[in-house]
Amino acid sequence: MANDEKEKKTESVSDPQVASKDGKLGTILTILNLVITLGIGGVVFMQFQKDKHRESVSDISSEAEAPAKDEHGAEAHGEAGHGEAAHGEAAHGEEHGEGHGEAPKKNTGSKILTLDQFTVNLSTTVGTPPRFARVVIAIEVPSEDTSQELNQKMPQVRNAVIDLFNSKRPTDLQTGEGRNFLKEEIRNALNSFLVTGKIKGVFFSNFQVSS
User: Fold this and answer.
1) Pairing between β-strand 111-114 and β-strand 132-141 as defined by DSSP bridges
2) Is the separation of the CB atoms in 160 and 189 below 8 Å?
3) What would the pLDDT profile of 175-186 be if each residue is shown by its tens digit?
4) What is the pTM for the complete model shown?
5) Contact 113, 150 (CB under 8 A)
6) How many CA atoms lie less than 13 Å away from 203 in the CB half-sphere?
7) Which residues of 41-72 are buried (b: 16+ CB within 10 A; e: fewer)?
8) pLDDT at position 35
């Protein structure tokens, strides 16, 4: 009987200790579970705040860029409209010019006008057989207008050329220097009565002096 009572006492003493240990363990587990839950909740909350912040920044960037794009698009449209208007004005100006019969620009390129062959007497002394020169002359003119003027004034042109040849002796035309001097005299003589332009150059071909 004494042993049974001791065992009962032992069991009665150990049971509160076990219960106390179990209670502490449960409390620790509960606290640990609460800490873990709070930690997970905090992590989720922080992630949510971070994602929300990113979305806010993205939204702000999109809203900030949208007016710039619209403004740029408006400016581009305005410039395009201005360019189209300028093009329209240019086209209108061209039509306006054509409507008034504006003459096209004339060709201002140089032209070569070849004169008919000259056979002219040269200057000789008394008692000397007559001598003559046979030559084809080409004249460089600055424009078609000057070429037309020369054709219209051909009698004056031929008269000026003949007078100059008549004043030359055969020996004057035997050297290149003498012939070049005659070319310059012809050019100056013709330019003296031309109005639309000045002769640029005089050229000789088939140049012959009788012996």
Assistant:
1) antiparallel
2) yes
3) 999 999 999 999
4) 0.49
5) yes
6) 11
7) eeeeeeeeeeeeeeeeeeeeeeeeeeeeeeee
8) 75
End-to-end CA gap in the chain: 183
Non-local CB neighbours of 122 within 8 Å, separated by 6+ positions: 131, 132, 133, 165, 166, 168, 169, 170, 173, 209
The span from the CA of 23 to the CA of 2, in Å, is 32
**pLDDT under 70 in the chain at which residues?**
1-23, 41-45, 47-108
Residue found under tokens 């424009």? 143
The predicted pLDDT at position 20 comes to: 57
Q: Which residues pair with 113 in a beta bridge?
A: 139
Tokens of 5: 């009572």
Helix (H) or strand (E) holding 121: strand 118-121
